[in-house]
Amino acid sequence: MVTLEPSVLAYYAQGKEDARLRLGEGRLEFWRTQDVLRRALPTAPVRVLDVGGGSGVHAEWLAADGHEVEVLDPVRLHVEQATRIEGVSARIGDARELPYEDGAWDVVLLLGPLCHLPERADRIRALSEAKRVARPGALVAAAQISRYAGLHDFLNLGRYFEPGVPELIAEVLRTGHLPADGPFFTEAYFHDPVEIAEVGLRDAVPHGLEGAAWLMGDMETYLDDPGRRRRVLGALRAVETAPSVLGVSGHILTTGHA
To answer: Most buried among 14, 26, 102, 238, using CB within 10 Å?
Structure first.
């Protein structure tokens, strides 16, 4: 079985991922992902494969919406967490080697794998596997971290001026590769929006999830207020496919069909 780099597995074994999208500003990414997917998903119930689905944060609401969901993830802790969710099954596995027959799923999601495959051949392999196990015409959705997310984030937090950070960011901007030995995250790949064509899906549409809103210092307070939250989500929906905004978003979600 293909396995991820030990540094990536060790990072997620810390158990931080389950809370990342449930608390604070991470909720913006969560709610926008939910918004885009709910508009693209077929009417429930359908069979959804959540590849690299982590602890089941998205699988949970998908199952609550009436879908039959299976999470496949390389991190044992994530699989244990996802298994506890009602209506969700989970198993250990790798996005580049899916243990399913051709055309077995109505929807295939890759909301995490492409971020941790620095080699283009591995990203293409994961996408090819997703298309293989999706039935013809099925929805396939893949998430990417924006190439410019690190630069914007560190400028916003005031950390760009720390020793070594400008050089690290320059390397990410040049290659997209964040090395495993950095102090901020684990090994990752940040996509330039122009690369999204490599997803290779029919009718592919990239959606900028957070626009520039994630860089606003008081965004967490806005998200706490249901009225303001609705307005923020509506505003971001209005510009989600604008080409000039894609690179500003922290994350990009591309939807298309196998």
So the answer is: 26
